[in-house]
Records
---
Amino acid sequence: MRFLPRLLLAAALATAVLLVCRLLLGRRGGCFPDDLAPRAEEFPSLTLDTFLHVQQLRKKRLRAFCSRLAKAPTLPESSEERARMLSSVRVSTKLDFLYCQVPATGMEGWQWLLEKLEEKENMTVLMPLPYPRQHALQTQLSKFNQTMIEAMMGSYTKILFVRDPFQRLISAYMQGMGSSPSFSSFVQDVLDRGQYNASLESKPLVSLCWPCLIQYDYVMMFGFLRQELSHLLHRTGLPKDIHLPEFTDTQVRWTYMWLSEQLFSELSLKQKKQLSHFYRWDLSAFQFSNSLLSDLLSTPET
């Protein structure tokens, strides 16, 4: 029964959006005002050059963030410490991919694609490696010894999926990842637990994926996966005729923009400021357009 309020909230919000579109905007079937509608013409075919330029900008911002850290992270010598540190990092030794698996970042399609590729007996990415190739299914990076981990971090294609932290929180709440009856109490529970004891669904990406230790080759942003994934696969040497999963992150992104404003208004000013501080690393390391938390980042806490 504790999930009933959020289920009703989701239904009410969906109904409200539809009514606004049809009654106030006079549109049949549309779900957004003309200046917000994610029309196909707003997302023209993304060229490879544009994709690579965007990647350079994202990685440049990430490098600037890492350069401001007082101490750069290093790989622990202890296997137990490495297991805790790299618990979210996955590798495919058959496809030579390394990526960070974080809930509510829209990467389910990516994981499905890797699983299908790994099932193909003759599917192998042709890339020279400084060690014997191992054919195994996806597993945690920390399962290997330090020498292998360092070799994989240096030679594998490394991919990071990121999403606005506030939208990640909303996604976790709507999926019932927590026992709080309201969004405000859900957020307060996250804040009370703190970063160290936070769950995977709410923990900042920087402290899960360690982008200042792992030099990710590609930073994939939720809301643009559908446009960018084909270029990523082409660049990483996978066949062009692969049947790609349907990414709906573009449409979901626009829906969450509206939903974020509604749920953000339920929080107190103190909670908003505390959330901004909680996710300060993510907000500094990545460019989240229109993030509601960014405006409060420089505001002193109460």
---
Amino acid sequence: MKAFMDDNFVLNNQTAERLYHEYAKDLPIIDYHCHLSPQEIYENVQFENITKVWLYGDHYKWRAMRANGIEEKYVTGDASDYDKFLAWAQTVPQLIGNPLYHWTHLELKRYFGVEEPLNESTAPMIWEKVNKLLTSGEWNVRDFIVKSKVEVVCTTDDPTDSLEYHQKIADDPTFDVKVLPSYRPDKGLEINQDGFQAWVKKLAEAAEVSITQFQDFLQALQKRIDFFHENGGRVSDHALNTVVYEGATEEDVAAIFAKALKGEKVSSQEEKQYKSYLLTFLGKAYHEKGWVMQYHMNAHRNNNTRMFKELGPDTGYDSMNDDLLAQPLVRLLDSLEQSNALPKTILYSLNPRDNVTIATITGSFQGGGTPGKIQFGTAWWFNDTRLGMIDQMETLADIGVFSRFVGMLTDSRSFLSYTRHEYFRRIMCNLVGEWVENGEYPNDEATLAEIVKNISYYNAKEYFDF
């Protein structure tokens, strides 16, 4: 029997052990998609206790606590931070088989030297030990980043954002990590959502453009792309909960936009035309800049109306969607490819049913001399589990070129989440090791080392060219 989470945790063969410890373990991290706060990075925030750094904003943990019968008071309510931590400590032992169990203990071990499993008995001791370290000045926000060997952090930013803190970080000679913005124009695509008109007004102010018609709107979006680029932005991101494509002329879409600008709701067909045209416009703009475009697809958000009204979005009430995406996604990508304007693109679906579909679609748009130009993105959100990662990687290997995979990201709001890269690297090395030890691939040390190093770090470094 192995010891609990020892040095060879999830490394189940000798080849895997060698590949991880000798080649993958100590490589830097490029975190090309996350939800960290650039303001907190600039201010180098010190957290007064583990609850603030660990449980605030972490909807993964909130879902688990609710499922364990914890009252909302101890999840997002007004209970003390200590009582919330105890509620999480009560929940953790119940999470056998859940990656939260592994993430929790990797974070405690790697950052705070805690070897004991977290439970109700050990909670008081762990609370005291971790909080002492957090308030020592040795574990402020930047310490988590630097000591995790992070080279690049890509935050998620609205086109109207000032990027004030990205600029301040870039001007700080004491901090070498690149903290770069990612262009996330979702609010500009959701033409039927409440607040669209207010967002357009905010965009006009940010771009210093008067928006009275659709061409003005496109000009404002382009100006903000230019601004992001000037501030190091090289990545865009889109939450396409439902993928749509419907052809339309610019005149058609201009009329749809004018209707929405007056506060009128547009039809479902008009919304599809608007989104299709705008996504094509944006894709061409990204291509022109040499950016990487990311599509996060098939999420079903804000399922619980009562709790959405009480707590708002991103509080643990989302799930997988099951819309069909093959036809609209292919048409959307092809609308860009027809004019040779398809940028490097990463495709993620929240529904693992789509894995084979996405893997085959990527193969239809590769080329131009760019290795892995169209990427089947890493297992995302509810798929960010051991089995989910294996499924994604095996599907990619079955159908595509696994060795060109750009690997892992955190997609996290927590500064402790960089251990997810360790988790991924261990699982990836174990998978490669299984192929070798099953006689499915030669035990060629140089080639194997290159593959695991590239997927862990070098592919992303080359692909994004930050």
---
Amino acid sequence: MAKIKCVISYDGTNFSGLQIQSRERTVQGELEEALAKIHKGAYVKVYPSGRTDKGVHAKAQAIHFESDYNLLPADWKRALNAMLPSDIHVNEAEEVPASFHARFDVLEKEYRYYILNEPEPDVFKRNYVYQYPYTLDIAKMQETCKYFEGTHDFTTFSSAKASVKGSKVRTLVEVSCQREGSQIEFVMRGHGFLYNMARIIVGTLLEVGRGNLEPAEIPRLFDQKDRQLAGDTVPPQGLYLRNVRYEE
């Protein structure tokens, strides 16, 4: 039995998220359907590095599956791409040790979020950026980013609907934002993320940028462990899973 790891990209616009759902179109559903065709109708389960929500995109999501077929990695890539719809693409495939697990072996994930800071929307970008018309103080937002780096209890900055049990402590190794023209790019790299955590951090940084929150208030928000104190959960279409890193 071979274990195959794939790195995939997908446009999340027309998916109800990654995780399989009955009667909904999902990334996992399309992958498992493609694998079933390759395996003459036999079910092959796909294990992702983690979920992404409805409308969220991925540049480099990682998955694994097991197969008793003896194909070369390049042939797996070719076969899957031949069966998959045009909004999912397998970038690379490789055979990995039997002990590998796409979710449990993750060392670090990187998310990026994109804002179009213009007064008028761009209809051609509406599914790929969050159009935000308000004036923003980028210097203050950059100052605030540093408060999110390190190890913290992120209860305040995760969805109250999160199903995760146990600790909400997570470690972020980079939180940054840069402006180029009217586009603002947020980078968040960490060992793990809670439900909606990346989108709530961005929403909170926008509150700072508009002057509704001061950078120095962030430690108090961590201490309060109250979701109501943080910014809004920004929309999904600006969020991209940019990379998933494992040990070499």
